[in-house]
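Predict structure. Chain length: 73.
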Amino acid sequence: MISRGKVQHRHQEFLGFLSQIDAQTPAGLDLHLIVDNYVTHKCGKVKTWLTHQPRFHLHFTPTCSSWLNQVEC
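Prediction complete.
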């Protein structure tokens, strides 16, 4: 399991978490991450990072579906 808890949830912390996942998983695996629609996950710097990391695939939960987000429950 890969996890990280931070006080803030900005794009810097999210990029750090993505880098941690990248470092701790075998290079040959495609990685599919399910994330909510929080602006941090769609920031320009995150999008740029993802274009250079083709094995990462972000899937966004539908808007207005907080009931799907276990953190919010």
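Summary: The helical segments are 11-24, 44-51.
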